[in-house]
Structures are given as C-alpha cells and as structure tokens.
Amino acid sequence: MIRNAFILVLLCFFGCNQNQSPSKDTESTSVINTDYLDYSGKDDQFTGGIKMIPIETPKGEFNVWTKRVGNNPKIKVLLLHGGPGFTHEIYECFDGYFPQEGIEYYYYDQLGSYYSDQPKDLSLWKLDRFVEEVEQVRVALGLNKDNFYLMGQSWGGILGMQYALKYQDNLKGLIISNMVASIEDYNTYSSEVLAPKLPKEVLETIMEYEEKEDYTNEEYLTLVMEHYYPKHVLRMPLEEWPEPVNRSVKHMNPDVYITMQGPSEFGIKGNANLLQWNVKDRLKAIKVPTLTIGATHDTMDPEHMKWISTEVQNGRFLLCPDGSHLSQFDDQKVYFEGVIDFIKDVDAGEI
C-alpha cells in the first residue's frame, strides 16, 4: 500500500517532463587521451563497462550492478547514491564533467536498488551490512589506496563516512556530499530552520498529517512536493526537473527507503534504522583527505558540513551558494569545479 501510494504521487509530478534538451554548454574542453575510452582487452568490454558483482550477505548471495566509465589507473571514483533505495541515475550528470578531466568513475546501484537484485528481506537494510557490501564491491573492482576515491551523497554520505571509519586504509580520498554526521542534528535543522520557512497554512497542514503519521496521504505528499522539494531538494520547478532525477525517483525502492529513512519527508522518524546514527565524536579518526560539500538551500545544514571538514584530520569544504540537496544539478558549475579540483589536488599530493 505504501509502495503504490508513494510511487503514484511521485510519478504524477515527475513523469510529465521526460524529454529535455541536452545542455548547450559550448565551453572548450580538454582533449581526452585516446586510452581513456579504450575498453579493448578489458573484462567488461563486452558489456560496455557494466559488471554484475556477487555480494555475500547474511541472507545469501546477490548481485549488484556497476558500470565503469573511462580508464585512469591513478584516479577511480566509486559513486554512492542517495536514498536509501534510489539509483545511480541521479549521478548521470557526471558524464558531462568527469570524462573531459580523465577521471575514471563507477556508477553503482546498491543492493535493493533498481538495477541490482531486490531481495524482499527487510533485515538486509542495515548500515553495517551496506558497509560490507561497499568493501566487496571495492575488492571486485580492484580499487585500492593508490587510486580509490569514495564519493557519497545524502544517504551515500552516511555510507561513505561509515565506510571510512572502518576501511579508510583502502582510500585515497573521501567526498561527503550534502550530508551531516548526526541524524539528530538533521532532524533539528529540518524542524527548527527549514519547516518554519514554509507558508504558515502549508506547514500546519503538513504537521497535521505528520502527527497522524498519515505519510501516504496525497495532500501531504502534494504539499511537500510543491512547497518543500523545489526549494530544498532541487531548486527548479518540478516540471523542469532533469530526466535522470525523474528516472531515479521512478525506480526508487520504497521498502529500502522506508525501512532505513522512515516515511516522513521532514527528518528521520519512527523506527527507521538510521534514527540513532551519529558519528560526530568519531570524525577526528578520519585521516584520509576529505571534501565535504554543503549548499545554502540544502535540507542539511551547510554549516554542519563545513564543521565536518574541520573535524577530520585533512579536510576541505565546498559551498554551493545557489544549490540545494541535489547541488550537482542546481549549482552544477560550482559543484563540479570543486570536486574536480579536490580530486586533482589529492592526486598531486597537495592535500
């Protein structure tokens, strides 16, 4: 029932604008070394870079989907999508920036997401199990401390931090995009800073549904979509949201999302598995070069992301002043310039 109601309302908003013109950016780009897109002799040439990687879990073996783009033995970026339960598709704009910089990168649908296996056992949707999944993916892809950059956004940022706290010796660099280090702080920012910015009557109606835990009510979802998402998730009119974002929403797995994040769009509540997550007092243990990315209009407090960069041993902060939670789209130039500069500086030993 939750699946049907949630997907139905999302599709009403995101399914109407699938044909958008490609970017007409005419800026000059660097010439790519011909080896970058040469897949000859690679074990994934037949599939154009796609690999289904077997993952061992407490509930048996499953397969997760990955796709490699490019060749660069020194720089390999594994992308951890948000959600939980969304897909790599929300990162597809990276195709417009990473190849021209010669950066090798990997799309990856976590277990339960659309292009990977989707087991129905809810006990699999736990943070520690996802950490072990990422480690298995790393090993299968041959990534190591000399070339491995882990980049996670939103839920992917939680997963990235948790992975680094256990396996940072395997990393060359860590990028935490649009995610704070404490769910309690996220909830406080949502309720005390962002919610009061809504029109009074809209907030009152939303809170009525929140109090009744009527999260699948169409009016509740409509108000969230019309008044909250275009200001703090992706700062564009809903009908102009990019096609990869709409596709990721369409492919979202509500079982994973609700089990870990909960049903509310105003913080993590109820019995969600991530409700008590907090690594603020452990950040000082992260020694690998780390970039944190915040955005002025984000669902997460940008000052908290800036603070994370000062807590880790070797941090840098990037602010996207015009961005929100998906700042790779609504403040794209700033976002990618900062990410690429960080990767290149780490590669050059300057950070």
Automatic annotation (TrEMBL):
GO terms for molecular function: hydrolase activity. Keywords: Hydrolase. It comes from the Bacteria. Residues 77-331 form the AB hydrolase-1 domain. The keyword Calcium does not apply. InterPro entries: AB_hydrolase_1 (IPR000073), AB_hydrolase_fold (IPR029058), AB_hydrolase_sf (IPR050266), Peptidase_S33 (IPR002410), Pro_imino_pep (IPR005945). The keyword Hydrolase applies. It holds the Pfam family Abhydrolase_1. Belongs to the peptidase S33 family. This is Proline iminopeptidase-family hydrolase. It comes from Winogradskyella pelagia.
